[in-house]
Amino acid sequence: MTVTIDDIRAAADTIEQAVVRTPTVRSGPLSDLIGADVFLKLENLQYTGSFKDRGAFVKLSSLDQAHAKSGVIAVSAGNHAQGVAYHAKRLGIPATIVMPTSTPFTKINRTEALGARVLLFGDSVSACTPHAEEVMQAEGLTFVHPFDDPHIIAGQGTVGLEILEDVPDLDTLIAPIGGGGLIAGVAMALTAANEPVDIIGVEAALYPSMAQALKGGEAPSGGETIAEGIAIKQPGKLTLPIVKDLVDRIVTVDEMQLENAVQTMVVSAKTLAEGAGAAPLAAMMAEREKHKAKKIVLVVSGANIDSRLLSSVLMRGLFRSGQMVRLRVSISDAPGTLAKVTTQIGELGGNIVEIVHQRMFSDVPVKQAEADVVLETRDSAHVEEIINRLEAAGFPASRLSDSAQAG
Question: By the 8 A CB rule, do 115 and 56 touch?
Fold first, then answer.
């Protein structure tokens, strides 16, 4: 079965009043950063925090009474699980979600809280699939694929219809690519409008499956990525030809670019985005010269980032920008010396967050010591000012490496 623009328009009618009609808003800070007109399609405002709500509702709504009564099954450790669980509960359809045994408890609990039965199996989503198929056959369930399904693609395509309503004269659309359901649907919607839009997909460098498939080959995919939502090793059989025909190019971004984009979304755009949701920003920042003076829409696909991971990303960003730094200061091991050091720092406006005074576990002379001081500062220039003041006062100081700080 193929997908047409009429299917996407029908999907828009299906989800009306059932799925959040998310806004497309202009971001002044990101526009200034790039020198372009940058808009954000905020799919992170969906009830479950991602665009997956759209396709899930369309697919579940398409089931006849017998299949709906029997129930559905899906394989997912993230956004697809929550989208299926939430809308299945709303429609009175029993839902089973098969998740890897390594899935964080918070995601398991959230999916169960949305009404689904959760089965844990295997060490990855790929390993879950055979087990899900066994359960499907044994219990007569309907499988809800995360991206390679006409109803799913049509549902995700409604994002494109809304973008055209909000920003009808856009130049460029940038969206993340995992299995390809989102960008395939959006690309179909934009292309049908006969607007000259440059459609760009973004993949994590560790999972370049779509880009490689378009080249006719396979690339090694795997590894820990902050963009779990697009960590897909094999693109869809339905989505691949659509992407090949309608998407202009694919950009890959590495982990540091993704991490920086998550931080920039929070700090500058005041918007929470998971790694996959920030991937379009990462791609735009990587090619900023190409996007100057353009009207660009970035699809912020989701906001479901683990709180501990987010805190780590933000803290590492502070260290990289010089707003937080760890200094190693050499001092004499005498009463009052440490107070003199802190006075010098305080007079220049540095805020001491943590200080460790090392006497016993150090290779410095017995009458000397080292103080490791973590500071909040304005920027890197402020850090250098503090270091210079300390050295002028007789306290040699050095800034520890970024890797040591961030760790």
Answer: no
273: left (phi over 0), alpha (psi -120 to 50) or beta: beta
> Using CA atoms, how far apart are residues 316 and 291, in angstroms rounded to an integer?
27
CA atoms within 13 A on the CB side of 144: 36
Q: And the tokens for 261?
A: 């984009």
How far is the C-alpha of 19 from the C-alpha of 351, rounded, in Å?
Answer: 46
Contacts of 188 (CB under 8 A, 6+ apart): 3, 4, 5, 8, 153, 157, 160, 242, 246
Q: What are the tokens at 148?
A: 């390679």
- Residue 126 pLDDT exceeds 80: no
**Pairing mode, strands 72-75 and 37-42:** unpaired
- Supply the pTM of this predicted model: 0.88
Query: Which strands, in side-by-side order, build the sheet including 351-358?
Result: 351-358, 368-376, 324-332, 397-399
CA 378: distance to chain centroid? 27
Q: Residue 403 class from Cβ within 10 Å (0-12 exposed, 13-18 middle, 19+ buried)? A: exposed
Bridge-based pairing state of the strands 324-332 and 368-376: antiparallel
Do the Cβ atoms of 202 and 209 come closer than 8 Å?
no
Tokens of 286: 């990587």
To which H or E segment does residue 203 belong? strand 198-204
- Which domains, from first to last, does the chain contain? 1-317 (3.40.50.1100), 322-406 (3.30.70.260)
* Type of residue at 200: I
Burial class (CB in 10 A: 0-12, 13-18, 19+), 241: middle
Report the b/e string of 247-256 with b at 16+ CB within 10 A: beebbbbebe
pLDDT in tens, 187-245: 999 999 988 999 999 999 999 999 999 988 776 778 889 998 999 888 999 999 999 99
DSSP string, 249-318: EEEEE-HHHHHHHHHHHHHTS-----HHHHHHHHHHHHTHHHHTT-EEEEEE-B----HHHHHHHHHHHH
Place of tokens 């009609």: 21
